[in-house]
Amino acid sequence: MKKYFLLFLFSILLLSCSKGGKVTINGKVTNGSPLERLEIIDASGIATLPLANFGVDAKGNFSETIEIPRDGVYVITYGGNTGFLYLKGGDQVNLDFEAMLFPQGMKITGDAKGNTEYLMESQQFINQYMSKLDQSVISKKEEDFLKELEKYKGDITKKMDEIAKVKKPDSDVEKFNKRELDVTLLMISSQYESMHGPATNDPKYKAGAKLLEFQKGLENESYVEDMPNYRNYVISKLSAGFQKFFEGQKNAAPTSNVQMFSKFLDTQKDVSDKTKEYLLAAVAAQYDLREPANPKLQEVFKFLDTKIKNSAIKSELKNLEEAIYGIEQGTDVSGLSLVKQDGSKITLADLKGKPTALVFYASWNPYITESTMPVLKEMVKFYGSKMNFAFINLDDTQDQFVKTSKAMFTGIQGNNYYATGGMKSEIAKKFAVYGFKMPSFIIIDKDGKISSKTYLNIADPALVDGLNKASGLQAPTAVPQAPDLMTAPSATEQHSANDGHGH
């Protein structure tokens, strides 16, 4: 029976190299909703946060210039679906696609065409090739299994070369593609190493010299910096030892995943400090930091800050911390500038004297009119005598801000402001606001300093506690339940007529 036991290895190529710079992406979406957004995500690092979030005009056209940290593969999302592009600093890229079919049928013209199409066709071939593999390969003797791996490499490399002759990618992209293939083969060999014993009823099986030699020939410590699959490979090689170590720690005090893994890595003298730091960051990002409500979040971030010395990893973890938790409490944000509905400018300093609840939103946010607004109205009524409410709009244009704020907030006590530039504004960057974080809620004190974490759900009891503390009032304990705001619905489910888009 055929099993697609290797498919999880062959998703999006996550490659990167140096350079980077400005990239302009233009294009048109056919038959799409003006409420849907495109996002470009750097998926090769630790944080995997969006670099850009932008919309389309009434005719489906879009144009955005972004700054990429390095040349390489970037994820592009639209309507809940995902594709990828190979981008280089200085690229001028044009994309045209049918909304319902994205990313299939995406037409690429301009600088990214050859590189991206080469990678896409290579990936399609690899997926098809690997889907035909039989589960019995893991039961073969090591010598025969290694012959299979060499055959895989030969067949796939030959096809990559054929595709390259037609698509004419840059030479460095060809090298990266073959480097990714090496990591794929390492992942397969690691699976064989862990599954061969159970598959052959041989509990004493251990990898032989030839398999270890094969792995050693493909391993390269530098890959750990920018290849998530390679980090996963190294973690998989360590998993058996970690499991044994973990079982011996069951009577120890409860701790986070990354702290336990760190204790284990301290016993692995043949793993370099550089690799250990990347692995710790990867484990934390995949497990401990995935849930914003994790009560140990701050503890985990403090531990990582102490344990990790690499400045590049520290920077990514700091970005991730701000994205999840918010910027450091006590930070003075009173000087940040905003625009009122009449076009006049103010700063957050104008709100000093009372604590202020900042509400970040945009007209394209899911569920906001149906679920967030009813709860928000009640909050404003209850706390409004003791604190300010500032509704900060992050739409793409000031005209859209005026329409949306009047449609949604007329009759609600509070201040309506626009952050010029929307998602690209200074205030969005300062507060680490991303599309997936809106609507979001932050409390600043009467002196204009941050006094809370960022709350991602208006029904979060911790938000009510924060408002109680800031205002000196005590709200009723029962809070109306809002849906999970981190779950993105389709465009037709997201919006009502009362969002300022006139539909």
From TrEMBL:
Query: The organism sits in which domain of life?
Result: Bacteria
Family matches, as InterPro entries: Redoxin (IPR013740), Thioredoxin-like_sf (IPR036249), Thioredoxin_domain (IPR013766), Thioredoxin_ResA/DsbE_sf (IPR050553)
Domain Thioredoxin positions:
327-475
One Pfam family assigned to this protein is Redoxin
- Which keywords appear in this protein's UniProt record, sorted alphabetically? Signal
The signal peptide stretch is 1-21
What is the name attached to this protein's record? Thioredoxin domain-containing protein
